[in-house]
Amino acid sequence: MPRKLQLHPEALREGAGAAVAVLKLLANEDRLLLLCQLSQGEMNVGELEEALDIHQPTLSQQLAVLRNEGAVTTRRDGKNIYYSIADHSVLEVVAVLHRLYCPE
């Protein structure tokens, strides 16, 4: 029998909108993979494409969604744009998903 959690629905009501927004971001496989990869540190588009085998224009589209929602931030260095996770709550959720669904 699953253990009971000490959750308070009235408290969740206040943060439900933010939680739903994060879950919507993670509900796309490409975005989830991008965030999982970025949890390891800052990467540029070429590095992400090589690591994940996600190609243009999909890569740019999904990075734009993550950037527009504030999940990632960018830094320009010459011709390269580097991406990193900007929202700590996104990083925490990705870590939980990794622990639950990625066997070591």
TrEMBL record:
Extent of the signal sequence: none
Keywords, ordered alphabetically: DNA-binding, Transcription, Transcription regulation
Membrane found in the keyword field: no
Family annotation (PROSITE patterns): HTH_ARSR_2
Superkingdom of origin organism: Bacteria
GO terms for MF: DNA binding; DNA-binding transcription factor activity
SUPFAM superfamilies given in the database record: Winged helix' DNA-binding domain
Residue ranges occupied by any HTH arsR-type domain in the UniProt entry: 11-104
InterPro entries xref list: ArsR-like_HTH, HTH_ArsR_DNA-bd_dom, Metal_resp_trans_reg, WH-like_DNA-bd_sf, WH_DNA-bd_sf
NCBIfam families referenced in this protein's UniProt entry, alphabetically: HTH_metalloreg
PANTHER family, A to Z: ARSENICAL RESISTANCE OPERON REPRESSOR ARSR-RELATED
Name of protein: Helix-turn-helix transcriptional regulator
